Each structure stands twice: as structure tokens, then as C-alpha cells.
Amino acid sequence: MKRKRKTKIIATIGPASSNYETISELFRAGADIFRLNFSHGDHQTHLDNILNIRKLEKNSGRPISILTDLQGPKLRVGSFQNSEGVILKTNSNFVLDLSKEKGSEERVSFPHPELYEHLKIGQNIYINDGHLKLKITENKNNKINTKVISPGKITNNKGVNLPDLKFTLPAITEKDESDIEFALKNNVDWIALSFVQHANDILNLKKRIDGKASVIAKLEKPSALKDLDNIIKVADGIMIARGDLGIEVPLETVPVLQKKIIRNCRRSAKPSIVATQMLESMITSPIPTRAESSDVATAVYDGADAVMLSAETAIGRFPLRTVETMNRIISEVENDAHYSNIIDLNYKKEDINSSDAIVIAAKGISSMASIKAIVTYTTSGSTTYRLAKQRPPSPILSITPSKSVARQSCLVWGVHSVINEEKIPETKIAEESAKIAIREKIAEVDDQLIITAGIPFGTVGSTNSIRLIKINKEYG
Predict the structure, then answer these.
(1) What does the buried/exposed string (b/e) look like for 426-449 if buried means 16 or more CB atoms within 10 Å of the residue's CB?
(2) Residue 166 lies in a domain
(3) pTM (2 d.p.)
(4) Handedness of CA 112, 113, 118, 121 (dihedral sign)
(5) 341 in a domain, yes or no?
(6) 3-state secondary structure of 14
(7) What is the number of domains present in the chain?
(8) Boundaries of domain holding 370
(9) Is the pLDDT of residue 57 over 60?
């Protein structure tokens, strides 16, 4: 299945989509990567989803990427007597405490005893990505009394943000340790670390997983922005988690930060993901707002590798329609005649090495000639990532012997991955490229391909050749 667009779609699996039929429909509608949110669900539920995704991968003949999202030191309230939650009104009093009893309109459990002594009168508490705002009026006897400043509905296990709190929690919790072990045992492709504060958080996780998966740094804290360059350098990918980030930093700065982060990721050939509230109204509505449609379009114009759906496909009423809608928005933007100029990236000469020069040349040729695809032969994925950061007009056909590299490349802009475990002689590279391009319905006889590879063939990190071929009849 060849996508007609280049920006990828991540769909979160949850109660609304946790079955093979729905996962298959989401994939056919345009989902390229499936996210498992470890803030919700148990290991058995996640295992069932992994098995369904791998079954779909086998049946479709296409590599499919699985992204596991660790909860991290995420703060959450407990559950309520009414499973639908309660409505908090302006200026009403509401208590957070350590009781294990289910919540009501007067109180709810906040099971984080390590934080109570650090919370002060006058500090703000935000719940559910900032939809609710409380102000602390008293903190005594493990009870935090608050006044409701911004009213709204609060439901089970909603996230809590404390931007005024000067207290650092460990980046990897005991729950995360268990989830990491489970994820690695089941061969997931990406692991996302929540609430990253500095590059060492990523290095510690990478040491823990020992190359068995790639790591995404979720940017949600102001401290991460201060160490942004180092985090991008050591992470394998970046997620702009705008829900928590928009609470921790001034809301008006988020669009500017989004553009800056995506631009910096591209310069480092690291994939970037824009996440949170992209089509949120479609949780309950069959159509998005105009503002949401524009938000998705902006992320695509910014040059993001992927855009992510969270609750929309996890608990929403219209998961399939949401993916279809996002697919249409992306396609419309990418068909804009100005799109390629908007996402073009300028480089300083000192940022370009020999491998970059090859892929820049490939992009240049594809811009001037009628090229159906740029073929990359890659062992580590490096060539593919370097080419993708150029955002060439032609699709990227990434051929690799590694199943994990093919799956991980599903996240990268413009890449169509193919697993080819057979060793290809250098003398056969043109013939095999043509056959695979035809088989994958990317090109036909008489079409032209560009081929980039490292010579000696298969050498990691040695992209040093570029070749232009025309597909002959015998290749069919």
C-alpha cells in the first residue's frame, strides 16, 4: 500500500479501537504508526493490540511501526463515584487528598504524597490539559484545599500540571521500568519518554534499552527547552507534546516553539511529531472545527514528519472518520503548489558532510527531472533519514534488510519502507531497484529512478554514490 502523502499519521489505540477490524480500518484509512499509551490500559490489553498490529503487518505485507508512550512522572487524580465525572463550578471549593475513596463534587484523591509538602498557598493547579484551573487556598493534614478559577468537567484519572512547583520527579518511574521491560520483550519500534528535562534523561533510557528500540523525547517541560539542542542530538526523534507544554510555558509561545523545534529536528535528520488536540472535537463530532483543520495544516506546512491523534482514535466516537479527515487535510496541503517552497530548508556549509551532499544532489535532480522515486539502500536508516530531511519532491523508497529499520522508518516523512533480506550484488542494484519499485506500485516501465547507496555496498554510514536509471521492460 503506497500512501499518496508524505507526512505520516500516528493513531493512538484505546477502547474505541482495540480490535483487529478497527486497527485494520485505521491503517487502510491512513494510519502509518500505532501508539500505545501506557498511561492507560494494562499489559494484556497492550499485548493484544501488539499482536493485532503484527497480524495486520503480515496480512498487508507492509512494515508497521509501534510507538509505546511511557507515562513518566505524570500526575493524575483518582477516580469518581460517578464514572462520568463531576462538574466544578467557578469559586466553588474542591479538595485534593490522599484518601483512596472515590471522588465527588467536593473532593478527589491525588495519590502523590511526595508532593504535598512542596505545594504552597496561591499556587495554581491545572487539570486535563489546562481545561480546569484551581488555586490552592490551604494545605494542611494531607488535604489541599482549592478554589475553582476555571470551571469545567473532571473525570477519572485526568492529568494534573503544577507549573509553579519547584520539585523534580525522576524521569523513569517504577511503572515505566515495568513497561519498558514489557515493550522490549514484545519488540516495539519506538519508546517515548515523557517529561524529559535534559539530555541525560534520554541517555539513561537508551542505556536501559541497549539499542533494542529507538527513543523519542517528549517535550513538555520548560527545562527541556533550555537543553533542546542536546536533547535533539541524543534522541532518535522528538514529540512536541503541546498539551502539557502549553500549560508549562505561555500558551502564545507554543506555535513559535513548534516551528523552531521542527526546524532544529530537520537540521539533525531527526523525525518530529506534533501532538495533542489536533482534531479534538472529533472525539464527539463527525467533523472538526475550522481551527483544528488549520492546526493540522500548520504542522504540515511547518515540515513535521508526523501528526498524532490521541483521544480522537483511542476513546472517540469516530476513530475511522478522524483518520480519514486528517489524511485529507495533509493531502490537500501537500498538493499546494507553494508547499515545497515553504518547507525548504537552508543549510550552513559547515553543517553539510559528504553524505548530505549526495542526498542534496538527489533532491536537486528530482526537482529538475521527472523522477518517480529516490531509492535508498540502507542498513542503519541513516541515508533514508538524511534524504528525508531534504523533503524531496519525489517519494523515498527505502530498501533495507532490517525489519526494525523498516518499521522505524514508517515515522519518517515521505518514506515508503521495504524489507529485503536477500543480499543484492552491486551489479544488480539497478535491476532490483526497478523490480521493487514496480512491485510496490511506485513506478512503471519507462519511469526514472534515482538510486543512492554506499559503496562498498551495505557499509553503514557511507552514502557516497548516486545513479539515475530508466526502468526497462525486462525489469517488469
Answers:
(1) eeebbbbbbebbbebebbeeebbb
(2) no
(3) 0.90
(4) positive
(5) no
(6) coil
(7) 3
(8) 349-475
(9) yes
